[in-house]
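Exercise 7. Predict the structure of EamA family transporter from Hymenobacter cellulosivorans.
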Amino acid sequence: MNNSSRFTLPPLPAVLLAIVSVQAGAAIAKGLFPVLGPATAASLRIGLSAVVLLVVVRPKLGQLRAAQWREVIPYGLALGTMNFLFYEALARIPLGLGVTLEFIGPLSLALAGSRRWFDFVWVALAAAGIALIAPWGGQGIDLLGMVLALAAGGCWAVYIVLGQRTAAALPGPVAVTVGMLFAALPVLPFGVGSGGLLALTPHLLLLAGLLALFSSVLPFSLEMQALRTMPTRTFSILMSLEPAAAALSGWLLLGENLTVAQWLAVLFIVVASAGSTLTTSRPQPAHGGE
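Solution. The predicted structure, encoded as tokens:
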């Protein structure tokens, strides 16, 4: 028996642990925002993740063909923009609501062009979820934070489409590693310009390393491990639990209390996401946006 098999988790625990890892990473990120700012936190997460992946995967960049570069560069730019917008949203709204709104992107992609009447149930549920979150009275949830989370969701949908094309051109670990290098390009100027890097201390750098580990490196490894044996549709249904996991994480780790209406909104989006997975050929969202 291969010694490495001792450390191999069954697919279901691997996916659930990946979900927990991502939400723990998001909680660490929100803890860094008051000192470093969201742009710097995003820069550190992407930059450190890229360094770790480069060391582990060791892609042969000189052997990539022009066609492969054409696929992986826009994929990486979409990944970086998505992370930047998501962190800017998290600086303004609770974690659970940020992930819930972001999920509208991949959910819309899954339902786009659908001709089945039952899929309109999922559209209606998603719309009801947004309606429950929206600050109709002009107070409560930060409107800019909501817009940024929805924009991050739009980038997530683009990321899924580009990710499928990139995965067809490059092996998965190589695609993510090289993509992460280009993901830094749209984020670093804001991270440097904000001045947050000047506030770095050894303690904050350690927290940034944990952020990269929990938000990118660990969940990516666990998801790749699970997808070797788990059906894609099962994986997608489990990923639909993300908004609920984020809301629970925000409550337990950050003390972010949601109203009853906001919890209902989370529930509606989760059901719509899981339901669309069962009734459409939905591409599974990965943890790129969180």
